[in-house]
Each structure stands twice: as structure tokens, then as C-alpha cells.
Predict the structure of 2-hydroxy-3-oxopropionate reductase.
Amino acid sequence: MRHIGFVGLGIMGSPMAGHLVTAGYDVTGYDVAPAGVDRLVAAGGKAAGSVAEAVADADVVVTMLPDHPQVERVVLGDGGVLAHARPRTLLVDMSTIRPETSVAIAEAAATRDVRVLDAPVSGGEAGAKQAALSIMVGGHAADFAAARPLFDVLGRTVVHVGGHGAGQVVKAANQLVVAGIYALVSEAIVLLDASGVDAEAGLNVLGGGLAASRILDLKRASMLAREFTPGFRIDLHHKDMGIVLDAARRANVALPVSGLVAQLVAAARAQGHGGQDHSALLTVLESVSGR
Ligand code: NAD
């Protein structure tokens, strides 16, 4: 398990691939954007000019791509992972995508004797940089055990949550909670500001009581400064809220709060904040109050 092919070297993939190099793995990376490949080479990894080149000698292939169309193209497409990986290669898709695509990819891979785990992450760019991600893994227990040393390089909370697609369902649950907390922290800021109460002092108190959260800890200063450099882009959280509502429909349940929060994230995107950090939800909550 020493040779890793890494496809998708963006905000998350770059630091993750860098940690694997530091841990002694032989990492060969590919990204359609040359900047990501350059970063990997600077960190001590190797450049590949295509997906095929990245996976040809790999024991493990890690993908960290935006959404299911990119994962489908990279894994199933001409010149993709399944066309070029050796038998028994372990494909670990760490992208956040819809659960049914993870299941379909695992089924397609099985016909080529390629093993698959869905292993989406939580913890954001900071978690990726600090190797402190939470990793939720779906797939066979034996494959999880084989990949565990690699996960331990990247994260602190690593849990095998079930069969193929289960990691993505857990990630959907994570994303609905995160978006909901951002929406409520934003409403708290709007109320404090509009009431003439110092919002910084107010949020400091919230951070010490029952309303405390990692989001309050990590993001209150940047939200109060209206500093929305990503981080995690609104565009990606909009994608994730689509996954949440789709998964709810498939599970035959109603998630009314998630439905409302999904519309607020959609509004952020429609108002031109798609490229900003998801904490820019504050802008939408301010605009609905005319602020
Ligand atoms: P990103 O856009 O920064 O990185 C994705 C990379 O994939 C880009 O460098 C892009 O050039 C590359 N890419 C796209 N299509 C490709 C293809 N066909 N072949 C090769 N490379 C291709 O996104 P990110 O923020 O790193 O997020 C990646 C995944 O992780 C997403 O599914 C996201 O939802 C999830 N995620 C992100 C965060 C975060 O805080 N940014 C946190 C948790 C999970």
C-alpha cells in the first residue's frame, strides 16, 4: 500500500496529498489545473499528466473531486481509473457526492476487481491542513482495515459507518447540521446588530454556553469581519444540500428545517456569493432584514 495515485489536488486534496508524502507514501498526483500538481511536486510528490498515469502503478487511488459528474468521468470514463488500475487496487473516493453514485461506482469497480470505499470528510480546509479531518467510510470492513493507516495520516476521527454509500449518507447528515448552524449564527448576528448590542461580546458569551459550537469557535471572528474567503464554497454547500434533500426523498422522510436552509444556501448562490465561504450565508440573512 505504498504507491498512491491522487486525483483532485484542490483546496482539500493538496494538503491531504502533502501529508501522505510526509508520512512516507509514494504519491503521484493529477489535476486538470496544473497549480495543484505543482504544489504536490513542491511537497515531494510526483506529477502525472493524466488519470491513467496517476493510477497505473498505484496500490491505492484517492479521488478528491468536486461532485459526482467529475467522479464519474475520472473513475468510469475513457482513460479513467477503472480502465487503467491494476486488479485489487483500492479506490478511496473522498469527494462528497450522492450515495447512489458511490454504490454504482462500487458495483462497476467490482466487475474489474477494483475495491472501493466512499470516504467523505469533514473539518474543512483547516482540518485538511492540520491532518485533523473526520472521515466517514462506507464499504467492506476488510477494505476499511487495509486503508486505515492512510486514513490515520489524514484524520483524527475515522469511523467505518456501513456498506457502500453509507459514508456519503453520514456526510449528508453532517452538512445539514453545519448549514443549519451557520444560518442560526447569522440570525444571532443580525439580531445583536439590529438591537445595538455588541455582536462580538454577544457571540463570546454564546461560545461559552449551551449554544457553543465549533463553527462559533472557528468562524465568529471572520463572520463579524464579513471576511468570506473560502474555505468551503457556497457552490459546494449548495451541491451538498441537494444531496441532503435527494437522500431524504429516497429515504421517504421529510426534513423541513433542511429544506429551508437549502433555500437560504440557494439564495446565497443566486445573489452571487457562490465562490465565497459558506459563512457568507450571513449576507443572505442580513439582506432578508434589509441590512
Ligand atoms: P476544489 O474545487 O478546491 O478541488 C477539486 C479539484 O478537482 C480541483 O483542483 C479541480 O481542478 C479538480 N478536478 C476537477 N475535475 C477534474 C478532473 N476531471 N480530473 C482531475 N481533476 C479534476 O474542491 P475542494 O474544496 O477541495 O473539495 C473537494 C471535495 O471535498 C468536494 O466534494 C467537497 O464537497 C468536499 N469537501 C470540501 C471541504 C472544504 O472545506 N473545501 C470540506 C469537506 C469536504
In short: Residues 166-194 form the longest helix (29 residues). The mean pLDDT is 97.
